[in-house]
Amino acid sequence: MDSSTGTNNSATRSTPKPLDPKALAKSRRTIIMVFLTCALPIVAAFYLYFFNKPETTNNYGTILSPQVDVSKTVFKDINGEDFTMSQLDGKWVLIQAIKSNCNETCQNAMFYQRQARKTKGKDMFRIERVAFVTDDGPLDTLLLRQFPDVHFVRASSRDLQQWLPLSQGLVGTKGSAEVGALEDHIFMADPLGHVMMRFPRNDTLDFQKFRKDVSRLLWASNIG
User: Fold this and answer.
1) pLDDT bracket for residue 150 (50, 70, 90)
2) For residue range 190-216, what is the model confidence (pLDDT) as tens digits?
3) Residue 221 and residue 189 in contact, taking contact as beta carbons nearer than 8 Å
4) Among 5, 45, 70, 96, which has the highest number of CB atoms less than 10 A from its own CB?
5) How far is CA 176 from CA 86, 93, 111, 162, 192, in A?
């Protein structure tokens, strides 16, 4: 066997073929398209966040700013025992101020809170409810039976107004102009004890929108 022939054959086999310019250009275009597909959403999000922030938000309730921390304030429950919001640390808390003779609108608002909590399924235990009774009158036994999971607590309207704000809120949030008396609204506190949202008046409250706000907060939160 001729060794020179074997060497020539080996050299021939090891010589790489020149790349097709058309194929190379096509591969480059594919890589660029993949890069743009991945990068565009990030660039768009960056632009929208820093340069094109919307003037209004999609939430139904009014976001409160600054948010008041009430976790250490001491109240008395209807049995005369000390109660603080810190007892509910780690929970989202729906808050309502009521009169002892809770009327139909008042009871409807409490019912909405109960139903919104129930629709959360296994997450319902992430939500607590507190009703602050702003007078010294006795509560109807039927009301207590109807809402057995609510924390009924005594507190004056004057004390509550220090941390359940009726006027503050972010400009442009929906419902920000619908302000009434303290007893006209449901408030929400986050798991850290900050009152962070006020919902529109109870007599015009849209249950579906209210429920969606509660759902969004639970979905977006890693705590509580």
Assistant:
1) very high
2) 998 899 999 999 999 999 999 999 999
3) no
4) 96
5) 28, 20, 23, 18, 23
* Inter-residue contact 91 to 128 (CB < 8 Å): yes
Q: Residue 145 is inside which H or E element, if any?
A: helix 141-146
Query: What whole-number distance in Å separates Cα of residue 63 and Cα of residue 176?
Result: 9
Q: Which residue has the higher pLDDT, 142 or 69?
A: 142
pLDDT, average across residues 80-100: 94
> How large is the greatest C-alpha to C-alpha distance in the chain, in angstroms?
116
Buried b (16+ CB within 10 A) or exposed e, 212-222: ebbeebeeeee
- Give the H or E element holding residue 123: none
- Give the residue-averaged pLDDT of 36-60: 55
Query: Phi and psi at residue 183, in whole multiples of 5°?
Result: -75, -5
Residues written for the chain: 224
Strands 194-198 and 186-189: antiparallel
Cα separation values, 42 from 30, 33, 47, 48, 116, Å: 19, 15, 9, 10, 35
- CA distances to 3, 26, 113, 154, 156 from 191, rounded to whole Å, are 84, 54, 17, 22, 24
Residues 6+ apart with CB under 8 A from 102: 110, 139, 140, 143
Decide: 136 and 101 in contact? Cβ < 8 Å. Answer: no
